[in-house]
């Protein structure tokens, strides 16, 4: 929606009037430029080259410079500039490497004047000399800058930056012979047009390509630069070395920068991608823009202040095929929407909170903070009433002090360094981490690791001391639950007459422990015996005595009053817990002596010892498993991780995520996991636990986390033999064909941690170099250099 504010500015007898307005173009614009009387603007792009008149209420098209039946690449413009001394002179930079000048005073429809075809690649920028009418400067993708005299057909001088492509060139407003150029490698060069052989000064301004620059219209030595690192920097070029005066951090790559007229510390910027807005910054307040224009719906490609002495009107072109005039009075003020609260932790754990005085309730018990308990805690600068932002806001500062021993984070460092996250079975990882937590006094965490082991680990070995069953006299081996057993070399007379005898005085526990984790007994030969001639059933002795024996009982003469426990020859049937006590030898003996029992029945019910050749076989699986599946506890484990994370212990949440892996990861959304990983890695890096941090990044399965140790990592390596830079294709030098990572001690390729001397470039395995330097200070490679390792 258009805003109806209107401004009238008096400039040396002429009046500038207008409002915020825009017009639709036929195609996206790449650049714009304003004539010296501020009455017309030229818009150039790949498919558009027109001049518009700036009326009071609207833009009016005056001239279309794209004439001719056949489309020409000479009309595909990457940049355009209007001469500030001759209102009829224009220059364009074409994408095919041609520099074209245009004379609007020609009577014909075709206004093209001269063509300069000396560049081999796209021309990124053209610039007229501010006071010399016939001097034109161009910067190209081929890395060269050329100075043209419009009275001649060829360039008068060529400047080679010995670098990558030139992104911007600008003549100095105050120095007649000086111009600045920016390059894609982050360098800025200052040249004297009288000396094309070498630059006067060169310095690295940004971490990445420098896309634009602009000289200050009032301060002679101030140069503003903008780059892909999302920063705008202001340099003082009057000193011996370029001095950074101000730095503004933006949210996207800076494509254009223009100083605001009549405002010494204000400049306007627009982005190359992502951000469509135009910002006006006060370099003294680099964090919040002074003004913001939000009219465009696509990337802004060109900005220009309408008049060099009027700070109210800003023109812009965009890829959304629109041309806009912005009135500074209608711009939004981001500072009005800024959060007035601030929160920060101190070095010793103290918490400082700043807010508007109206939001902080006065408390009678609150004491003024002296700041001398543990100094230096923080420094509060006294405000200067003369500063422009001194009276905009006032705040109250509250400091919450921590007890001297209450904020210790030693447990965090010890836990991070001692935790085991991978490389062992799950049970060992849980036991180790539980032990670490217990030694550090974190009992709840230790108990959590123990519970995770119980939930997710397979049944472990239970010590025999916990078992109540044993086989044979004096045996300490536990009796397993099994589903088959065999007899080997059974005595031929073993039948209904054969009996198992119990030693007198044998004692045993009243209850039997039936645990699937009991140790299994194995037989040396797994041959299956088909049984004896007489059908015989077996049961586990459960009568009173010292130890358990295996009993053989004739089912035909079993005690009629007791339950019959029948075990088939092939396998155990599934049965419930034994409640009643089976008959023992004494009970059966009493029955045999009873007058109501015949002699044959008494003989049948009596027990005799089994032959020692009786044996048991191990089985493949247990009778039953009383354990719940791990998936049953998924919701409980998920809530447990969220509990630790909400309590601030992201270390525990991330460690469990890594140790359990896919067992629990599927129950937690990716965004939550990424947040936990990011928080934990940030804490590790704050405590300088770089190795642990890198291990956590490597073990993470989140794409956003796993690429953290791969992004923004630049390693420049020179060959230790020929001193030439190494290519990115590997560790073998392209020039001398020798491996750069060769250990000077053992003469093997270093595949792990590599350490080298910055003086002679020789190095090798860390342990080898340390051991070598313990006995000698000379380089192990024999170069004679005195190496040091600290």
Overview of this protein structure:
It is a single chain. The chain is 15% helix and 26% strand. It is of the alpha+beta class and 790 residues long. The strands form eleven sheets. The protein has a four-stranded antiparallel sheet with strand order 3-30-29-28, with no helix packed on it. The chain is globular. The two termini are 66 Å apart. The relative contact order is 0.05.
Short summary of the structure?
The protein has 790 residues and is an alpha+beta fold.
How many strand units?
37
**Strand sequence of the main sheet, in spatial order?**
3-30-29-28
Number of H/I helices: 12
User: Radius of gyration from the CA trace?
Assistant: 44 Å
Strand content range: 25-35%
Shape designation: globular
Helix content: 10-25%
Q: What number is the mean pLDDT? A: 76
Biggest sheet, in brief? 4 strands, antiparallel
List unreliable stretches of 5+ residues. Answer: 372-379, 460-565, 581-624
How would you classify the helix and strand content by structural class? alpha+beta
**N→C terminal distance:** 66 Å
List keywords for this structure.
globular, alpha+beta, four-stranded antiparallel β-sheet, 790 residues
Break the fold down into its secondary structure elements and pairings.
Elements: E1 6-11, E2 14-19, E3 21-24, E4 31-34, E5 40-44, E6 49-54, E7 59-64, E8 77-82, E9 89-94, E10 99-103, E11 112-116, E12 123-128, E13 135-140, E14 144-149, E15 155-160, E16 166-171, E17 178-183, E18 187-192, E19 201-204, E20 210-215, E21 222-227, E22 231-236, E23 243-249, E24 254-259, E25 266-271, E26 278-282, E27 291-293, E28 300-307, E29 310-318, E30 322-327, E31 342-345, E32 351-356, E33 395-400, H1 410-418, H2 426-439, H3 443-456, E34 537-540, E35 550-553, H4 585-593, H5 599-605, H6 634-646, H7 650-660, H8 662-665, H9 670-686, H10 690-699, H11 703-706, E36 754-756, E37 763-765, H12 766-775
Antiparallel strand pairs: 1-2, 3-30, 4-5, 5-6, 6-7, 8-9, 9-10, 10-11, 12-13, 13-14, 14-15, 16-17, 17-18, 18-19, 20-21, 21-22, 22-23, 24-25, 25-26, 26-27, 28-29, 29-30, 31-32, 32-33, 34-35, 36-37
């Amino acid at each position: 929606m258009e805003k109806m504010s209107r401004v009238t500015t008096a400039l040396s007898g002429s009046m500038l009037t207008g409002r915020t307005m825009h017009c639709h173009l036929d195609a996206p614009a790449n650049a714009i430029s304003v004539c010296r009387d501020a009455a017309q603007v030229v818009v150039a792009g790949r498919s558009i080259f027109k001049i518009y008149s700036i009326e009071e209420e609207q833009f009016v098209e005056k001239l279309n410079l794209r004439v001719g039946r056949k489309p020409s690449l000479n009309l595909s413009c990457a940049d355009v500039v209007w001469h500030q001394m001759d209102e009829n002179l224009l220059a364009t930079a074409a994408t095919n490497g041609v520099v074209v000048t245009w004379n609007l005073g020609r009577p014909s429809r075709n206004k093209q004047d001269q063509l300069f075809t000396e560049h081999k690649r796209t021309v990124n920028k053209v610039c007229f000399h501010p006071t010399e009418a016939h001097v034109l400067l161009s910067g190209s993708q081929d890395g060269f800058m050329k100075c043209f005299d419009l009275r001649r057909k060829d360039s008068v001088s060529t400047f080679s930056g010995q670098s990558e492509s030139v992104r911007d060139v600008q003549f100095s407003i105050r120095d007649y012979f000086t111009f600045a150029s920016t390059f894609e490698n982050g360098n800025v060069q200052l040249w004297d047009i009288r000396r094309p052989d070498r630059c006067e000064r060169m310095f690295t301004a940004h971490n990445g390509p420098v896309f634009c620059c602009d000289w200050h219209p009032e301060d002679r030595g101030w140069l503003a630069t903008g780059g892909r690192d999302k920063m705008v920097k202001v340099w003082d070029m009057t000193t011996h070395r370029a001095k950074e005066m101000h730095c503004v951090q933006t949210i996207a790559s800076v494509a254009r920068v223009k100083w605001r007229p009549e405002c010494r510390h204000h400049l306007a910027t627009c982005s190359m991608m992502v951000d469509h807005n135009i910002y006006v910054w006060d370099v003294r307040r680099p964090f919040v823009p002074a003004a913001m224009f939000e009219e465009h719906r696509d990337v802004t490609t060109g900005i220009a202040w309408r008049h060099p002495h009027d700070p109210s009107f800003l023109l812009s072109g965009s890829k959304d095929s629109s041309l806009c005039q912005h009135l500074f009075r209608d711009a939004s003020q981001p500072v009005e929407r800024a959060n007035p609260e601030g929160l920060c932790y101190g070095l010793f754990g103290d918490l400082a909170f700043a807010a508007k005085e109206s939001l902080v309730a006065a408390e009678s018990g609150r004491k003024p903070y002296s700041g001398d308990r543990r100094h230096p805690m923080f420094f509060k600068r006294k405000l200067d009433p003369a500063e422009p932002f001194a009276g905009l806001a006032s705040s109250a500062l509250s400091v919450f002090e921590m007890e001297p021993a209450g904020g210790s984070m030693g447990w965090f460092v010890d836990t991070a360094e001692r935790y085991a996250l991978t490389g062992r079975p799950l049970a060992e990882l849980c036991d180790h981490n539980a032990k670490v937590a217990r030694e550090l006094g974190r009992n709840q965490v230790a108990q959590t690791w123990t519970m995770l082991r119980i939930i997710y680990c397979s049944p472990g070995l239970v010590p025999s001391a916990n078992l109540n069953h044993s086989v044979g006299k004096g045996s300490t081996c536990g009796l397993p639950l099994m589903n088959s057993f065999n007899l080997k070399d059974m005595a031929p007379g073993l039948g209904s007459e054969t009996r198992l005898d119990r030693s007198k005085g044998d004692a045993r526990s009243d209850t039997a422990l039936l645990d699937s984790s009991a140790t299994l007994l194995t037989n040396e030969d797994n041959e299956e015996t088909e049984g004896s001639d007489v059908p015989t059933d077996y049961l586990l002795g459960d009568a009173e005595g010292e130890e358990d024996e295996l009993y053989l009982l004739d089912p035909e003469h079993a005690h009629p009053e007791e339950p019959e426990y029948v075990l088939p020859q092939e396998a155990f049937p599934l049965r419930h817990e034994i409640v009643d006590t089976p008959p023992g030898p004494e009970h059966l003996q009493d029955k045999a002596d009873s007058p109501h029992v015949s002699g044959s029945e008494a003989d049948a019910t009596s027990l005799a010892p089994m032959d020692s050749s009786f044996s048991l076989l191990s089985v493949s699986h247990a009778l039953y498993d009383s354990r719940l599946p791990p998936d049953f506890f998924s919701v409980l484990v998920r809530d447990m991780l969220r509990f630790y994370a909400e309590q601030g212990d992201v270390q525990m949440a991330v460690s469990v995520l890594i140790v359990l892996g896919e067992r629990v990861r599927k129950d937690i959304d990716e965004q939550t996991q990424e947040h936990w990983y990011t928080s934990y890695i940030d804490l590790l890096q704050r405590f300088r636990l770089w190795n642990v941090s890198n291990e956590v990044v490597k073990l993470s399965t989140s794409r956003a986390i796993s690429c953290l140790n791969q992004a923004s990592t630049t390693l420049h390596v020179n060959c230790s033999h020929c001193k030439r830079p190494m290519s990115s294709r590997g560790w073998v030098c392209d020039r001398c064909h020798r491996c750069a990572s060769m250990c000077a001690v053992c003469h093997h390729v270093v595949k792990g941690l590599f350490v080298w001397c910055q003086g002679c470039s020789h190095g090798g395995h860390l342990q080898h170099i340390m051991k070598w330097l313990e006995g000698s200070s000379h380089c192990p490679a024999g170069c004679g250099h005195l190496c040091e390792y600290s």
